[in-house]
Backbone:
């Protein structure tokens, strides 16, 4: 991980040869791509790609791959749904799932797929509205204006609108989404091949995973008709070929100030890593309670281990002294240029120190804020309780005055979450709540008034058990009554989880208010100024940090050097069997062992590209210049984890399943002719006749 | 934790008013103590205190408190013995222990108490022997000379000798110990009061713990006759009174270079914290397997939580930018002074850079070193196996060429450890080994040759289970045969744990050799030079970093300011009952609840002093100027955790049980008249007549 990163986004002068950037569709460097790869995407091409891509759930990417609503994503993105549809007797995680007919497709309890149909620049409106304001006034006005723009845009229940803050506030765009809420599971392979190599191989390459799942979006009970979708490439991709990755990178922090990066390095990341490590130990041992406990906690464990590994990579990147020195130098260069111009100095000069001061403020309230408001109490039942309590309270207020997440534009999604049929596992809930309450007491100390309020004279375990056993919120009817009943229903509720959420809500709101006004608003306002300063100094040919919204990156299939050795860019199916030991996580499923003789050993399995991606890009398609599918992104290599803070084309790699591996396994392992025919119409008979290896 | 520390040890000019320092008995600042507190300890006084103190086990302190071998230490220091003597039916951890007669005293399976009887300065011998040598030659010669000095000094089986490296090699002293290996449990209170407040209250103040245990050392089957021991103070201590703490502080790092501190801050501490956090989660959930599993893992969990909290304190101290800047400034000042003198520059000038280079070397081999040699495989059975394998190998070599720990002088202690009757819990062993093997694979990657050698095609859990179930090393007879049988017995052994230890020993030895020659020897040699430079620049009136050997600190009973409020220095017994909630860890034992009405509420319970201590001082007595017991050290406050790197008298505090709380509870809660009479001969009748509250 010791290397020098080119932080082009920061210094403005993007080197001509770097495949850096998670670009927006209204500021794509088409000319640059042409210069390097000889192909210049047109606006029409970009629009087609944008509309063929889809956000998957709240943290993944996906693509439309047929006119009948077939959507491709990763197995690990659809895990939640697959687990929710499973029972102790029918374990689709372990055994996979394939709907042989459309009638057998199963509806996911809580999943939304959404398509970005329109982008509108609203920077001027928002800047005008907040002009001259600071602190609370600034934050309130900005929030109100955003809510108002979103509300006006939300013209139907299947439309979602969101003001996206780009360039740390340098630009604001209004994104309009077509929502698909009836999503049904079509095909999922066994966990053992989807995540072959498990945590040890996660974020590594060479790799041998079939991390794919197909779902279908429905409209009015029928497969949705989709105009824009990606066709399948006939031949897949090969070394050196140009690759595009459309998708929803979650968050990068390349534009943060040094003070913010220091805070991440010294406080936020280590604290989160300590906590996640402990949860990992706890859940790993929880799995030993029994087979059913293992089943219900596997999804949680995957998320924890995945987060842990990726966060460790980020932490190490920030601990790299050379890298950090570059960040410091880039900031100093910009500040010097700003200070050299009296006009710019007056406008932007104080922004960095203001942000540093906000970090100090956050340092002082962090424990309280995290414990009371930001994830301190980790439980599905508690989340439902808090949302119900707040929904009742917030919807009595004018739209502009509500907490973010409770504006009119958010209510359809909120209701969707509150009424999700996803199962809740009491035993796991008790374990997680016990952990949360123990941490609460540990972080704040047993004498903190909030801790006394929550725990009273009970132990964390006793309280957790009483709450989970006493709560009826797992019952959809109960939630529906509370949702419909407003403040009176909440006040009258004897549900202990509702009572806890209501009891601590004033504390949580108070600390949130402090955070929003004294930290968030200050950072937001001053980041906006720094972004403007960057535009003024370096021009607008730069990309914004990732924001969980649709972007496009470009690159090529390319190996890299590691520990002095070349890592080849493409693995083959045959070697998958070499890695099989028979013991988890290196145990191939029976279906693969049985099909081994039929599979062509030289079929490309996984590959790497130079595309600049980050967590959230999981499930993105890899496409060629004809916008055809050549792969399915499911990971980045270990070097790419530092990509949160900067991109290094020499070693940062996107990891993808090759399109030919998808076809070969659908054909020979899973005999999933119905999907094959849909992906490559007319090809199935010929495929059937293909000789065995 | 944000504060400026005076790092007197570094800058030499110890401020006249700071109670800083863990002083050796041959360089105690008696005049300084007189100046501040009006009492000047004589050499006779110091000798008496030294001989009345004792090392307890391998990581704690204790004191002789009667002429008949009675020893006082902390409950948490004797936990290992108390747990080892417990069974599922007789749980002395939960219920406490009191031997009403001497005949009922129970022998601890694996415990040694040792008394420092002689100190000899051997600096000149060692410096002469290693003159002009570097690297491997230097390390080998130093090791050989130390072994030879230790061997010559070890004149009997109950004598242990050790060359102690002081001032990072600035001085070498030969310490001679009288060993007591027959140690018997006399009294232990219930865990619930010994560790009242549990992890939440650990390292905090105000505090209400009775963290005490009494054992007795025996010689030839009878209580040992002890000439030097501490008498009990009649009145205890009070605010402002002078206090001394003799004891064995484990390790401080106040003399480390900036490069070493950076490595600790950025690599060692975070990595250890991630690992310990995960173990904590694992063991916490392991306790839910059942009552017996809880019992057998409680000692481990305590150690993990204690280590975690203390390590977090250290990490935060190093992340404190002001504090770190002071360290940098102090080093720069010293280097400037060295560089200004051509002679000093030639001799010492390169030392800091050499140490920095050794850190870089360590960075490259750290994962291998830790995995293969330094704690990577965490299991009692594996430790036994490795020691047996190495013992067989090493004892075929001349003394000077052996691995440290296998020299003739160490063999009695080694045999003691190998033949310990302490129980081994297979279920916990499997859990810990599974964790170790999982980490091994995670840290080194599944393709590392060492990982393949250890795991083969097995999963971590399968391997751990097979090893533990297949190994017979829990049987003392088997160990005895292997110990006596030498290399032939090891080679012939079919025990899977012995086979694993033998299989990986070449790898472990190779990486250890690299570490010792390229890291340890370089650091040692150059630290020695820096220490000499410090003596040359600042004089010898400074104390060495803690080394786990006997030291003496001075101070006074004194409160401190926290969050703008005064923390009073003494708590009282009555408030202990206020803190009782009935739920662990705030549940008082029945014995206390029953005795509440008899206890004098105003009896001092715990108190704090300004003594400079660190982990390892647990179990130290607090004594007054008449060398009488006034308390029992069991903790430091949270601020003191940064004491590893520097001392801040304004907030760093030693936390102790008050001597009056010990007397009051032995009398009224435990009716332990036999101990009371031994501690304060003749006082028991009067005590019995004391009126209840």
Residues:
């Amino acid at each position: 991980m010791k290397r020098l990163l080119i932080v082009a986004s920061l210094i403005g002068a993007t080197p001509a040869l770097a495949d850096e950037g998670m670009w927006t569709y209204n500021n794509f460097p088409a000319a640059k791509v042409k210069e390097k790869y000889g192909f210049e995407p047109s606006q029409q091409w970009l629009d087609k790609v944008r509309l063929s891509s889809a956000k998957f759930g709240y943290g993944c990417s996906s693509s439309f791959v047929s006119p009948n609503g077939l959507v491709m994503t990763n197995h690990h993105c659809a895990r939640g749904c697959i687990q929710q549809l499973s029972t102790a007797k029918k374990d689709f995680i372990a055994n996979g799932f394939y709907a042989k007919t459309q009638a057998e497709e199963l509806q996911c309890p809580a999943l939304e797929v959404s398509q970005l149909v329109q982008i509108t620049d609203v920077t001027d409106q928002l800047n005008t509205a907040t002009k001259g304001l600071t602190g609370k006034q600034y934050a309130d006005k900005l929030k109100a204006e955003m809510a108002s723009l979103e509300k006006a845009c939300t013209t139907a229940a299947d439309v979602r609108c969101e003001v996206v803050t780009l360039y740390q506030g340098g630009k604001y765009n209004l994104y309009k989404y077509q929502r698909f809420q009836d999503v049904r599971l079509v095909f999922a392979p066994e966990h053992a091949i989807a995540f072959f190599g498990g945590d040890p191989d996660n974020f590594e390459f060479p790799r041998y995973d079939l991390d794919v799942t197909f779902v279908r979006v429905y409209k009015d009970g029928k497969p949705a008709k989709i105009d824009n979708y990606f066709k399948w490439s006939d031949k897949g991709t090969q070394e050196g070929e140009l690759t595009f990755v459309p998708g929803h990178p979650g968050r990068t922090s390349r534009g943060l100030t040094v003070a913010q990066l220091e805070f991440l390095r010294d406080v936020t990341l280590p604290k989160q890593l300590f906590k996640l490590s402990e949860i990992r130990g706890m859940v790993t041992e929880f799995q030993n309670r029994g087979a059913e406990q293992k089943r219900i906690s596997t999804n949680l464990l995957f998320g924890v281990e995945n987060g842990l590994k990726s966060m460790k990579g980020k932490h190490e990147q920030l601990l790299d002294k050379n890298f950090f020195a570059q960040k410091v130098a880039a900031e100093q260069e910009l500040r010097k240029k700003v200070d050299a111009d009296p006009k710019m100095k007056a406008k932007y000069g104080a922004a960095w120190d203001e942000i540093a001061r906000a970090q100090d403020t956050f340092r002082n309230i962090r424990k309280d804020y995290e414990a009371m408001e930001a994830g301190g109490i980790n439980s599905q039942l508690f989340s439902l309780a808090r949302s119900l309590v707040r929904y009742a309270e917030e919807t009595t207020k004018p739209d502009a005055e509500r907490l973010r997440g409770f504006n009119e534009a958010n209510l359809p999604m909120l209701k969707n979450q509150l009424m999700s049929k996803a199962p809740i596992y009491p035993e796991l809930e008790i374990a997680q709540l016990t952990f949360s309450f123990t941490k609460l007491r540990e972080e704040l100390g047993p004498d903190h008034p909030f801790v006394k309020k929550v725990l009273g004279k009970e132990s964390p375990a006793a309280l957790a058990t009483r709450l989970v056993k006493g709560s009826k919120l797992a019952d959809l009817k109960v939630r529906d009554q509370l949702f419909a009943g407003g403040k009176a229903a909440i006040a009258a509720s004897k549900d202990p989880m509702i009572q806890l959420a209501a009891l601590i809500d004033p504390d949580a709101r108070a600390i949130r208010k402090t955070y929003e006004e004294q930290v968030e608003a200050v950072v937001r306002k001053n980041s906006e100024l720094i972004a403007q300063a960057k535009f003024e100094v370096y021009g607008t040919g730069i990309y914004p940090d990732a924001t969980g919204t649709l972007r496009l990156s470009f690159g090529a299939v390319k190996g890299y050097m590691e520990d002095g050795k070349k890592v080849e860019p493409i693995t083959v199916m045959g070697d998958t069997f070499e890695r099989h030991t028979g013991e988890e996580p290196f145990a191939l499923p029976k279906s693969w062992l049985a099909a081994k003789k039929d599979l062509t050993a030289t079929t490309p399995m996984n590959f790497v590209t130079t595309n600049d991606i980050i967590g959230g890009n999981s499930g993105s398609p890899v496409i060629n210049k004809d916008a055809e599918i050549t792969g399915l992104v499911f990971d980045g290599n270990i070097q790419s984890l530092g990509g949160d803070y900067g991109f290094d084309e020499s070693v940062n790699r996107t990891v993808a399943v090759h399109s030919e591996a998808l076809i070969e396994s659908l054909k020979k392992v899973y005999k999933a002719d119905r999907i094959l025919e849909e992906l490559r119409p007319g090809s199935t008979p010929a495929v059937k006749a293909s000789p065995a290896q």
